[in-house]
Amino acid sequence: MSGRSVLSMLLKPALVWIALMALLGAISAIGALVPRGHWWVAELACAGAMVAIVVLFSMEMWRHAPIVRLFSVLGFFWVAILFGLTMVDYATRSIAPQ
């Protein structure tokens, strides 16, 4: 292997790691500096961007067969359904009197 190929092999994972750490820092900063309000939307968007980076660049989903991509999307859709059901349960519970 030449020095150029090793550098090109290490460049993509390093850039992915830097992007993930930057998004993690953004989520942490939002959580630490703004503890209340509707900033959870921004945190959720950062988390979604992190998932997209992992799926597209680390898992290299564009190189797989269409059926694998379909089941990957369906898996994330199923997780979204479960997350939504959990949030509905959390939002509709009443606080018991003490």
Quick summary:
This protein has helices at 3-33, 40-58, 66-92. It is mostly helical and 98 residues long.
Provide keyphrases for this structure.
3 helices, flat, mainly alpha, 98 residues, 2 domains, single chain
Question: Can you describe this structure?
Answer:
- With 98 residues, this protein is mainly α.
- It has 2 domains: 1-63; 65-98.
- The protein contains 3 helices and no strands.
- The longest helix has 31 residues, at 3-33.
- The radius of gyration is 19 Å and the shape is flat.
Share in helix: over 70%
The biggest beta sheet is recorded as: none
Portion of residues in beta strands equals under 5%
What number of domains? 2
Distance between the termini: 69 Å
What string, H for helix and E for strand, traces the elements in order?
HHH
Number of helices: 3
Which radius of gyration do the C-alpha atoms yield? 19 Å
What class, by secondary structure content?
Answer: mainly alpha
Q: What average pLDDT do the residues reach?
A: 86
User: Could you say which overall geometry the principal axes of the C-alpha atoms support?
Assistant: flat
The residue ranges in which pLDDT falls below 50 over 5 or more consecutive positions are none
Number of strands: 0
